[in-house]
Give the backbone structure.
Amino acid sequence: MSDVLGGTDSHTHTHTHTHTRPVSLSYLLGGRIMDARLLCSTLLLSVTRALSSADDGWFVKVQPEVRGIEGYPVVLPCTFGHPQHSQHSSLQVVWRLGHGQGATVLYRCTSRSGAPTCEPGPKQDQRYRLEGNPREHDLSLRISNTILQDNGRYYCRVEVQGREHISFEDKMGTRLRVEAPPKILGLSVEGTEQSGYRALCRVQGSPLPDVQWLGPDDLLEGSLLRPLAQGSTGHYHTVSQLRDVEPGQQYTCSASNPLGKEQATLYVLPPQPPLSLAGASPPLLLLLSVSVGAKVLLLVGMGVWMVQGGALPGLSCWRK
């Protein structure tokens, strides 16, 4: 810092001093006569180059893109430097998600001279911590247990406390892409006996999973609906529907992307005969299971829902 500030003072002093001298005066330098105009231009050019070098000497270096897997930690590299490796009494590190007024500060810490670590604030989210040491010019950020909502562009900033408050950051930032294997969030059946029943399969993943419906013997044709989740999370959720679901059949929702595959099977049992009394509606039995690899996890053993007036309102079982 002192060299940059000193260069600025030197530039001001030199510029003022040379212009107060008579222009016609000549100097003897190394046995050669140099006109004052040429000397002034040379000095100003030298000072300008020195200042440019000092400004460019501070740099922040980041990685353009980092990819992570949901549930695992990820590190966003960031280093800064100065050609003279200056040491300062206080450095503040700031990491934020997004740019401009909509940016969110995720991490902030202060590194003081002689302190072994960079101290964050008391309300700092523990998912974020500094992986590097600012005194070693390393500002890398570690994010634990990444989630899909961590996707975005991150900006690393170092603020130098001193005679003047100066800060540096990389304007391009680092693009974090969090990927996740498919996850079937739930299956549901809705509709009426008159209009027919349809099955819905809600899926999450990144890249967005491809969803297929399978019958006992063949591939069935489903269709995609608008995502139930809006906003940023809507990029990772999709809902597929299968029309003309019939009692007495089983239907499998299969979701896949480059990171894996998951399936859920829905058994729709035929209505049972009336139990007795007038107006008694026959029950409909559903069995829901989710298979992951070679394992079958039973989410709901067997449930009984009463069909009211031929309708099957909001039958659903959601995997958490």
Summary: Residues 94 and 108 are 5 Å apart (CA to CA). The domain at 59-172 is CATH 2.60.40.10 (Immunoglobulin-like). The chain has three domains: 2-57, 59-172, 181-318. The longest strand covers residues 174-192.
